[in-house]
Structure formats: structure tokens, C-alpha cells
Amino acid sequence: MSLSLLDKIPAQLGLVALVVGIGFHAAVVEGAALKQDAGPENGATLLNHSMALVQRMEALLVQGNASDVTLRVQTTNSDEVKVIQAHGLVLSLQSDVFDELLQRRNSSTLVLSETPDCAALFDKFIRYLYCGDISVRLDQAIPLHKLASKYQVWSLQQGLTRYMTQHLSSDSPTGHVVNWYQYAVQLGDAALRDSCLQYLSWNLSSVMQSAEWGSISGELLLSLLQRSDLILQSELELYDALEAWIGQNQPSGLTAENALRSVRYGMIPPQQLFRLQKQSPLMLKYYESVRDLLFLAFQFHAASPIQLAKYFDVNCSIFTPRNYLSPAWGSPWVINNPTRDDRSFSFQTQLGPSGHDSAKRVTWNALFSPRWLPLSVRSTYTEHGAMQPTRIDNGRPRVIITPATSSPDFAGVGFQKTVIVAAKQQGKVVVRHVYNFHQSTEETGDFLVDADLQRRTSEYLIDSSLYLHIVVKPLYHSLIVSRK
Ligand SMILES: *[C@@H]1O[C@H](CO)[C@@H](O)[C@H](O)[C@H]1NC(C)=O
Ligand SMILES: *[C@@H]1O[C@H](CO)[C@@H](O)[C@H](O)[C@H]1NC(C)=O
Ligand SMILES: *[C@@H]1O[C@H](CO)[C@@H](O)[C@H](O)[C@H]1NC(C)=O
Ligand SMILES: *[C@@H]1O[C@H](CO)[C@@H](O)[C@H](O)[C@H]1NC(C)=O
Ligand SMILES: *[C@@H]1O[C@H](CO)[C@@H](O)[C@H](O)[C@H]1NC(C)=O
């Protein structure tokens, strides 16, 4: 991908002035006449030679004509030295750090010391300062970002942060998101860190099956395990991946215990818990550290969760579901030509994850309206009663999910619905949004606000269909929320 920042760099005006100065001396003498805004005036025709200008700047760097500073780039722990003939004016225009280094120097050479990964990309970096564009590969993002940060080239730094945020789902042989996460943490860039964390959370099944999984740090593993918004097949899948990670990384006993205590055992059926308890080498090793949680999980499976809550004061996450894709928890829903009309759909889930309830089924009716009007808007329409019933463009999409029948079993249970929305990014299907609500997406206020489903090219349409996955999560407030 190519970042073209030509129009966004404030220093660009300076660059224009510089090259105009090289080419047409007379114009610079009357320099004050140079207009600050580049747009053509009324009635004037724009002659645009920006591309040629960039080429001349590049040639200036390559040929080193009239160079007034030599950059000697030394590589840490190596004798390799890279020499670049540069121009102080260009460097100073783009970077305050270069400006200061140039003012303080006492020879025509500036000695710079860089790590090997940064030194390897130093030419590319300097070329950006001359030309204002740069091509970036996934593995080059971090070293270039380091250089942009060190020399305070903010436009490049921001461009690279945006590039990383938009390329989380790109294919790479060994994975890159975990590295980007570690870098963002080290840098203190909370926005990039959170984007990486969200991507890993929402794509956890793929990540757990990839080679990248083994390379995540204990700290990242623990922060993922705390999250309720993980999207994965089942809690058992998470346990298996955890076992693989611990086998590969051999962390300290404390990290292993903390990780094991973050598994939500209540969400694993008792038959599977028996197997883990007797056959998982990890469980056999750390059994004493999680014995209380396993006991609690078996109690949870033995009776109705509401009964359990009557006798025990428990307050822990092992009863809180994550976003499980397995069929007991919900269903995919592919809506073809979503703008056409309202659609309805029925599916079944278990009443709850407790062994007491998991065989009982609840039938849900889901309704999708592409252009539903909020009450406030609807009333203004009826006022102008005569208005032709044309397409109502300002209607909003909405999903409502209600149980087909009611049951005494629902007492004390809040069913939280989650709609996972997929979209196409860089030609790939990725999770784009996760919306939580109780009955209707109206509650979230922003359901598919920027999906623009009318547009054939909307990234939310995959082969002209909207790809949703609905998860129904029974929440026992008496178990999860502290009891008074
Ligand atoms: C001038 O041309 C370049 C590429 O040829 C283009 O990117 C740029 O937007 C043009 N500038 C204006 C002011 O139209
Ligand atoms: C650099 O100098 C050479 C020889 O003096 C000249 O041919 C070339 O056009 C110059 N390059 C630039 C970019 O001015
Ligand atoms: C300037 O030169 C002196 C002596 O030659 C040297 O000690 C000093 O470190 C130099 N300063 C810089 C900023 O390179
Ligand atoms: C998850 O990541 C894999 C690559 O690791 C990618 O192929 C896939 O499209 C991603 N899926 C989602 C839902 O983000
Ligand atoms: C219950 O757990 C939550 C989250 O861990 C915590 O904020 C809250 O203080 C706990 N309440 C009690 C009564 O322990």
C-alpha cells in the first residue's frame, strides 16, 4: 500500500517554495506573492506538475546535487555504515529533530545510530521526507514507525498508525498483530493497542489456531482471558488453546495459575469438565489451584442457577458467557438483499449453560427491518399525511429478538442478545461490530449507522447479503452481580 500524504503535510507548502526556488529564481524574489491556498482562482486553469516536482526531488536525493549534509547511519552492534548525501533544508522542513541536530552540528557530517531494522529502512524514510509518499509492507510498519517517532515526522507516524489499524486482518505468514500489540504497549499508544486487542478478541478462533498464538506474552494472554467479548466456538476451545500455550511457553507457576483461574468453568458442560479433571495434564498439575472453581462449576451444573444463588454468595466471572459461536448459544443469520423488506427468522438455544437447563430449548423470533423509523421521526411523517409513501431514506436498520413463548423458567434470568456483524476489509470477511442489547438494537442507538446498505458497494454487503451471527447469553444477575 502507498501512503500519499502529499496534500496533508503542512511542510508541503515549504517544499513547493523550495523547488520553485531551485527552478525559477525570479519567482522567489517575489516570494511574498506565493499564494498559501493551492486551489485555482475563479476563471483560472490549474497547471499541475506535482508529479514532476516529486520526481525532481527524488533525483535531487539520488544524485545528491548541492548536498550540504552527509548522513552517516551506523548500525548498532555492526560495522555497517550507510552514507546518504542530503539537504539540510529538506530535513529541517520535515523534522524538528533534524532541525536541531543540524543547528548543533560542527561538521558537514551527521552521525546517526540506528537499530538494524531501522537502519535497513533509512533510505526509504529519507525518501519520504523528499517525496511525501512511501510504500509499506506489514513487516516494515514498526521500524518505519520507530523512525517517524524518533525524528518527529508526525504525518508519517500518523499515517503508519492508520495503516496498522486498517491492516490487522491482512495475511502474513507468521502473523503481525501480536508484534504490533507489543509495540503499541511499549510506545504507550493506547488507540493502536486497543485496536490490536479488539482484533485478537474478535478473531480468537483463528488466532488460537495460528502459529502466532504461541508467541503471545503472558501479559497479553491474561488480558485476553479477562474479556467477555471474545468471539470463539466455546470455552472448551479456549481451555485447549491455553493448555497448548502453557505447554509451549512454560510460564511461571503464578502465570499458569492466573490463566487457569480465568477460564469460565461454568460455561463448560459437566461431561467435559470430568474429562479435563482426569485427563488434562495441565489440570492434573494445577488441580489444587482451581479446585474451588471446579467445585463451584459442578454446583452450578447440579441445579437451577436460581437455586444456587439462594444459598451461596458468589460473585465471579465463571458464570458470565463470552460470545460463543457453537449452535447451543445462537445462530448465524445471512440476510440476502437486506434493504428489500422486513425479514423474520426463528432459531433455538439452550435455556442456559447449567447442566440443569442445557437440555431445555428456547425458541427465539428475530425480526430485521432495514428502514425502521424511530417514533419521533415517524410522527413528523404522518403530520404531512399526504406525503407519497416514497422510499423512506432516513429509516434505520433494526433487529428485534423475542422469545416465541414465555416460560416460568425465565424467572430471574436476563437474556442478553449479541449481534455480531461481519464486513469485508481488504477483501476479507472480518468481524466489524458487536452489538449487545436485551430486546431491540434500538437500545444501542448506533446499530449499523454507517453501514449504508443502500449502496451496492457497502463493505457490509458480502455477495449482496448481510452476515449476522446472533448469540443469546443467559445472565443470572443474582450470581453475577453482588448480592445486597
Ligand atoms: C496534481 O496532480 C496530482 C497527480 O498527478 C494529484 O494527485 C493532485 O491532486 C493534483 N493537484 C491538484 C491541486 O489538483
Ligand atoms: C545534478 O547534477 C547533474 C550534473 O551536474 C545534472 O546533470 C543533473 O540534472 C542534476 N540533477 C538535479 C536533480 O538537479
Ligand atoms: C563538536 O566537536 C567537538 C570537538 O571536535 C566534539 O567534542 C563535539 O562532540 C562535537 N559536537 C557535536 C554536536 O558533534
Ligand atoms: C481472522 O484472521 C485470519 C487470519 O489470521 C483471517 O484469515 C480471517 O479472515 C480473520 N477473520 C475474522 C473474522 O476477522
Ligand atoms: C463483584 O465482582 C465485581 C467484579 O469483579 C466487583 O467489582 C465487585 O466489587 C464484586 N462485589 C462483591 C460484593 O464482591
TrEMBL record:
Which CDD domains does the annotation name? Answer: BACK_BTBD17 (cd18493)
Q: According to the UniProt entry, where is the signal peptide?
A: none
Q: Which Pfam families did the record assign?
A: BACK, BTB, TRAF_BTBD17
What's the domain of life for this entry? Eukaryota
Which InterPro entries does the record cross-reference, listed alphabetically?
A: BACK, BTB-POZ/Galectin-3-binding, BTB/POZ_dom, SKP1/BTB/POZ_sf, TRAF_BTBD17
What SMART domains does the database record attribute to this sequence?
BACK, BTB
Q: Which residues form the BTB domain?
A: 67-138
| Name of the protein | BTB domain-containing protein
- Show the taxonomic lineage: Eukaryota, Metazoa, Chordata, Craniata, Vertebrata
